[in-house]
Amino acid sequence: MKLPALYALVLALAPGGLANAYDERLDITPLTGEHWLVSFDFNLSSAVSHHHQLFPRVLEGVLASSNASELHLRFGQGYWDADNWGLTPNNGANVAGTGVELWARIAADSYPDAEASWFSLANSLSGMFCASLNFIDSAHTTSPKSVLGAFDTNHSLYLFHGSLPSEPVCTENLTPYLKLLPCKGAAGVSSLLDGHHLFESQWQSMSIDLSVEDGRLHLRQSIYAVLHVDRTLERRINPVPEPEPYEAVKCDSSRDYSNPQNGICYPRIPGIGEINVTLSDLFGSPIKNGACLSKITSKSPQICLHIPSDNWSVTASDELSPAIKSVDQICYVIPPDSDFDLSIHSETRESVLPKTPSPILASRHLVGWGQERGGFHSVYKSTSGDSPVSFVTYEVLPWFMRVYLHSFTYTLFDSAGAEVATGSFSASNVSSDIAQLLYYKPAQPRVSPSHIEMLLTIPAGSKLVTMYQFEKSLLYYNEYPPDANRGFDISPAIVEVLTDSSSPRAVFRTTSSLLSLPTPDFSMPYNVIILTSTVIALAFGTIFNLVTRTFVYAEDLPKQSLAKKLRAKLSKITSMFS
Amino acid sequence: MAVSGSRVKTALFGFIVKRVSFLAVIALVVGACWLFVLPLPGQFRNTYISENALLPGQAQAYFRSSEWHYLRGYKEEVRRLSDKPASEVVESLSTILSEQGYYTDVYHHEPDKATVYGIFRAPRGDNTEAIVLVCPWTNGNGLFNFNGIAIGLALARYLTKWSVWSKSLIFVFPPDPHKSLREWVAAYHRSLPIQAGSIEGALVLDYPSDLSGFSAIDISYTGLNGQLPNLDLINTVVTIADFNSLPTFIHGGLDKLFNALPSFLNPLKSSAYFQLLSTLLSSVAAQVTSGLNRVAGCESFSGWRIDAITISAIPTSELSHDETVYGRIIEGTLRSINNLLEHFHQSFFFYLLLSPHHFVSIGTYLPAAMSIAGAFTLQGISKWISYIQNGSSRSSILKAFFVEAAILAFTFALLSFSLLFDSQLVAQMLPTFCACIIPTALYASPMSYALLNEIHGVALVLSGMALTALATLNFSLALVVGLISSPLMFLKPGINRMHAGILLLVLNPFFIFYFVGMFTNGYTYIINTFVSSWRDMQVWTWIIVMCLWLPLWEVSAFISMANVREEAKKEVK
Amino acid sequence: MRMLLFSWLVFAWVAVAATRSHTNNWAVIVCTSRFWFNYRHVANALSMYRTVKRLGIPDSQILLLLADDIACNPRNAFPGTVYNNADRALDLYGESVEVDYRGYDVTVENFIRLLTDRFDPDTPRSKRLLTDDRSNIFIYMTGHGGNEFLKFQDAEEISAHDIADAFAQMYEKRRYNEIFFMIDTCQANTMYSHFYSPNILAVGSSELDESSYSHHADIDIGVAVIDRFTYYNLEFLENVSRTSNLTLADLFNSYDSEEIASHPGIRTDLYQRDLSDVLITDFFGNVQEVEIDSSKPRGLLSLLNQQIKQAK
């Protein structure tokens, strides 16, 4: 078992038996009156030694057998509304796009060795996390050059990235994820995590980030979810959203015609007014505590609510008082050895803290129509009012989308919507003030995907619209998936915003896209075989006759009497036997 | 049957050759009568759901009871907006949608026309596909779509309570269901700022009244240029309506036709054959006039492979079915479309409906148009045969093609003229221009009988080819244009000019438009409709009229009015 | 005296051979259908998964192949759950489920590789059927089928011959002690008609030219939630616990073709034991028989006594 150089060095240097450091926390942030963000963070750092008791052994084995020094795994579903919700937690460093995504740094002597280790890593993880990561083959693998930490690399480490946007995320992925935690999801903040409640959320992201640093193994697991509070609460009463009883209709009484007795009711705007909710309402159970957690760590888990405390009131079970209470947050330290619940109340649920706006709002979607070609249309809007924003986009497109980079055009609009600049790439010029091509690796059919990285800079308050065109390929008959008429999923683009070193970078992903390729009628091979067989049978007979027989008119034949005809036939028969 | 030798005994072959013209007549009669055979028992099929995934009506629809209260609230709101200016309407609709959590935007395609649209992203989906619900402010007949808008708003609110959507929902409120809607669909596929993926299906809500009751729903399905939505979409809506005991009609049903017929035919009207026939003919008529007169809304989605239908409620003052039933039909259809993982691909894309539960597929009805196209080809061949037997020469063939090309160029020029200039002017000038061929023919130098037949043969064969191609795309248009222009194939050089003149006049496209215009909105209106439907909705009917029908008419006029050079007219052997 | 010793040895050997039984249980549960309207096939498979887990087979010895994600499908009105009954009393997905092959991974090739253990070197252990010659395997398949074929995901088919040959390979490689093959599809009985390896017991839900029907639908989920054959099997199996003495003969006797609306078939000619001696837990449970292999030489009589005790 070959250990990566760094790993071995660390092993040699680190003294054995350093304490494990583990902490977990839960943050609840109402984003709007209806959407609440819940963030679970679990951080474990462990000395590199074979005697640590908290670090999951399976992961250690996976790291060692694939010579990976860094591993990042993401499971994501849903849509993050950056317009209204701002930036994703932790500036997006631990946030997933749609589907399953994996990237790792692998130590090897040569690229083919590294790639072989990468595939074996993907396969082991597919068994561990019940996700079809084994589909990450060379046609789904790229090596990012300017995103995902590609810059801090040393030469013997290869960075690989693979993404499967069509993978579903469900309880079978959550179960092994929870088993990595020290208490296996039975105690502490992780006891709130349940597949039924997590997967009814509007957006969720599960991430595992594993790295070796300063002689220690760092494992960070984060689960983020945006809950639609009204739907969640109603589901506790009635899982099916049946119509309310007549007495319970919520009418907007400011409308003069609103008259519930007569059955006329203009609906009240949702997400405004009073709310009363507990952790059990949101997650199905209070936080359970047991001996497990206090044995592991001295740091008790924390739960923080990020709310304007003037308009909200929070009560904890057993009348516990908050550890921190300030204008914009209320935090509790969860006591060990007893269950813990919170009751959150407000008269004006729509009053929430202002959110950090995302430096840019990006969206990317397919345009065009028809079976031959299409285009990718991306819109980037700067939200900052004073300084220009630079960001890197990283796009991986499957080989059957034949991208024509010369068709790339960009148009810059100022804040009033007027067109300010346009441009495009040409063979000699792939760089301008606004758009610069950092890296482009064209696709090789069935071997590797298209890989495009661009650096874009937009002035304050502007909007950049980019577009490039592609042609669709025909696939072989057996390359179509079973649901071929749905289309093919294209991975989300990763956008990393570069800022000056004082503020952290922000990372986010666009939505995935669905590409419809020309799809054959799969019953046709049978029909074609039948048809061609029939045609060939008929044609063969006719041509055979035409070629081998001569036709003479009956009246041209010499007339023979019946007797002579019979004699002629007899003589023919007897000649056969002689 | 192969024979060798130089002695060509043309027994059967000769029989056919002598009677090609007769065969053309037979083909024409067959094509004209084919459609009347289809409603007989055994010729049509019952509809069925091909795509197992749809499961129509299996999920319970809950748009009832207290949801009606909210619907009435929205109705009052729409009543308040009904006489307000468009800008205020647009702003109110945007506000109502964004209150319920939709991403709303306004698309201005003309300075004074704006379309409001709102997107509800599927809560647990991957937002790569969408279903569109259209509630135009006025419906296809120009009536105020009162309940359609109110039910649209009520559904927009109600559907956000459910998290079962795998596709995003887009609600669109265009001012009208034709040009505005089509502009919006085109913009969606190009450059709209907010998007929700590819559109899998579209429903147009049409309920032009504030009455709470309706008696039946009427489904309009024909798209532009012969495109049709997948039959499964219609079957789904009809199945759900059947579960709700709601009668359905196709394309206006039978009322219009029933009322137009004299009363002594009443016993015939109630027969099954007649009902099927009238729905079939109204489907054919709808396909021909699709995009031209009443645009129900589903036509605006043609061209992007979006399956779209318009569901119109027929309002009535009795409360036989209340407006929430309409909402439940829409909800059930949305749940069925939501069940799909793949696009609609299992059921038929080429069909004609004889009733909500009966249809004929392309293999059954296409022979009607094909045999008419075949009649043209056969007649053209018979002209050629008579020409061959009267002696041939290469230069004559070239001359014939040259004449045909010249006439095609001429009609193409007329087409360009009609598209570039104002329709009033166009309507007046076109008949004059096209009639210019007649003095040309009268004053040209005499041509041989054979050459004239050759020219006519070329034109007929070309028309036959064009009609064959057209029949596969737009069956009804090929059938109608073929039938109307078919008498032109019987014109001969040298016949009585007065008879020819009458026939030519009656079969002239502009004369027919004028004649039809006397019963509808006038000749200029018809020309204007044709031209503007091409410009706004990309309807090809005007192109077909100018480049298929008119050239044939021009050639027939030319050869029948031309002076025939005096030489022995040889008989066809 | 030598003759007596020899005959005792023979008797001991025969006793050992006759009491040869399984020491571990495995289950392979396959749902081959994709698309939302095939909810009931996933519910069938998960019902069997839940049963074998309840009766003791651990996840590491169950291979669950589900061709589509139903629980977290956006169309599911009850996220994270799969129900097999409209009363929604029991959630089959639960809190802890391990799906070994899912989605596009469920293919004919992967299924046959799983059975015959011809695996890619990178295949993780949890995706392999690591059985030996003392393993009893319960194989359950459900989906859309026909005369001697079963459709995988509407795109490919596995034929009865393919499964028979895979079982033959398993027999040659000593990969099973006994196999109990249960299949719930249309014309299911044709699927086991070509087996030719010993120690295989097969049961199917319907005869040739017969369809298997769904039992009932849930109006809020909007689909049928369970098939009839599996439903009635479950009704019986719910009464079985880890220590139950119910036998397969009891299970098969409980089948009523009127209720199931098709004729289940049972193939026993390749199976040596009498069905009334086979406990349900021999296949559905994980009752382990411990084989003590000590190197200390032991007297023949004590060895005989031990074997007789085990046979009980």
UniProtKB/TrEMBL annotation, chain A:
Gene Ontology biological process: attachment of GPI anchor to protein
Signal peptide: 1-19
Record bears the keyword Transmembrane: yes
Keywords for the protein's UniProt record, in alphabetical order: Membrane, Signal, Transmembrane, Transmembrane helix
Membrane-spanning residues: 524-547
GO CC annotation: GPI-anchor transamidase complex
A Pfam family: Gpi16
Cited InterPro entries: PIG-T (IPR007245)
PANTHER family: GPI TRANSAMIDASE COMPONENT PIG-T (PTHR12959:SF11), GPI TRANSAMIDASE COMPONENT PIG-T-RELATED (PTHR12959)
Descriptive protein name: GPI transamidase component GPI16
Record organism: Tortispora caseinolytica NRRL Y-17796
From TrEMBL, chain B:
Keywords: Membrane, Transmembrane, Transmembrane helix
TM segment ranges: 20-40, 359-381, 401-421, 433-452, 458-491, 503-527, 539-564
Biological process (GO), any one: attachment of GPI anchor to protein
Pfam families: Gaa1
GO cellular component terms given for this protein: GPI-anchor transamidase complex
Domain of life: Eukaryota
Listed name of the protein: GPI transamidase component GAA1
The organism of origin for this protein: Tortispora caseinolytica NRRL Y-17796
UniProtKB/TrEMBL annotation, chain C:
GO biological process: attachment of GPI anchor to protein; GPI anchor biosynthetic process; proteolysis
Pathway listed: Glycolipid biosynthesis; glycosylphosphatidylinositol-anchor biosynthesis
Keyword Signal found: yes
Catalytic residues as annotated in Swiss-Prot or TrEMBL: H144, C186
One Pfam match: Peptidase_C13
Keyword Signal: yes
InterPro entries in alphabetical order: GPI_transamidase (IPR028361), Peptidase_C13 (IPR001096)
CC annotations in GO: GPI-anchor transamidase complex
Signal peptide bounds: 1-18
Similarity field: Belongs to the peptidase C13 family.
Name assigned to this protein: GPI-anchor transamidase
Organism, scientific name: Tortispora caseinolytica NRRL Y-17796
